[in-house]
Design goal:
This protein is an alpha/beta fold. It contains 13 helices and nine strands. Helix 2 (64-75) crosses helix 12.
Length: 326
């Protein structure tokens, strides 16, 4: 059972990586490490969220993130409710604030929100008394994705210090990219943004960039390929053939990286665009391991934000926290 000192984690919400300190990032990763043996469900997890209720409020499509949060909450003993925007009162012009206030008044312990508007999780947090966790807002942040990627790197490489990561592709439209940049900057790692000029210009952050993928690979301990987000391009001109020639990760291209360099992708993967099947399914790929790490990270995030992971409850046993609401 995780024995996390409460003083190390005092946040009620997880809204973004930008607001976290390096110590807070490591505290959450340490909790996820201790919960890792339980994340696949093959070993019964401590039910520290028994009698708690978590609402997944997703206003954008999602498979892996919604499923991951659902499994994370259920494996800690919580009841999980699924909010479907298409059949909700949002379609009757009820405001998001009124929607979440009504739900909060019914008695939930956490709201996990994905929303197409930047800053929506923050506005929800200001409107409710329960915990709020950001599952992605516009192209702003996706904090648990950055954290699960860190956990995958630490468990496979044995460290999180002194790393060089290439972040490749449609950075301009990626909330994962922003959270990743914030996380590695706080940990003192080097991140190199790679992609065609149209995807890496005017990012609003001070970071190393290049359009030459091949030139940076020999320096990389890990390569994170990002999905080309066609749904966000609108009228953006995009040459698919040129992109594949310059930025698709192939076995030959991966061979230029440091020996044992890891390949990551936040998913879903556009196979044949961001990478070939040989790379996606190859021995250096940790894409499926990222999904496993995601459940552990979201178990830790829910437990810490709701307040169920502390030393006192750890001593109480696997049903600790039952019937207690903060």
């Amino acid at each position: 059972m995780p024995k996390i000192a409460p003083a190390k984690w005092t946040r009620k919400h997880l809204l973004g990586i930008e607001e976290l300190s390096a110590e807070e990032i490591k505290t959450l990763l340490d909790a996820a490490d201790e919960l890792f043996p339980f994340c696949t469900g093959r070993q019964a997890a401590p039910r520290v969220l028994e009698a708690r209720t978590v609402l997944n409020l997703f206003c954008e499509d999602s498979t892996s993130t919604r499923t991951s949060f659902t499994l994370a909450a259920e494996r800690l003993g919580a009841r999980v409710l699924q909010f479907h925007a298409a059949t909700s009162s949002l379609n009757k012009r009820e405001s998001l604030a009124d929607t979440v206030r009504n739900i909060d008044a019914m008695g939930v312990d956490a709201i996990v929100i994905r929303h197409q508007e930047r800053g929506a999780p923050q506005r929800v947090a200001e409107s409710v008394t329960c915990s709020v966790l950001n599952a992605g807002d516009d192209a702003h942040e996706h904090p648990t994705q950055a954290l699960l990627d860190l956990l995958a790197l630490r468990r496979r490489l044995g460290r999180l210090e002194g790393l060089t990561l290439a972040l490749v592709g449609d950075v301009r439209h990626s909330r994962v990219a922003r959270s990743t940049l914030f996380a590695h900057a706080k940990l003192g790692n080097r991140v190199i943004i790679v992609g065609p000029e149209i995807f890496i210009k005017d990012l609003g952050v001070n970071v190393e960039t290049t359009t030459d993928f091949d030139s940076v690979l020999p320096e990389c301990d890990a390569v994170m390929m990002l999905r080309v987000q066609f749904e966000r391009h609108e009228s953006l001109a995009f040459d698919m053939d040129a992109y594949i020639r310059g930025y698709q990760l192939t076995p030959a291209r991966l061979g230029r990286a440091r020996p044992g360099a890891l390949v990551l992708h936040p998913g879903p993967v556009n196979r044949g665009i961001e990478m070939t099947d040989e790379v996606a399914d190859g021995p250096q790929s940790v894409i499926l391991f990222q999904a496993t790490c995601g459940v552990a990270v979201r178990m830790a995030a829910l437990g810490l934000c709701i307040g169920a992971l502390d030393r006192e409850r750890a001593r109480d046993g696997p049903t600790a926290g039952k019937g207690k609401r903060r």
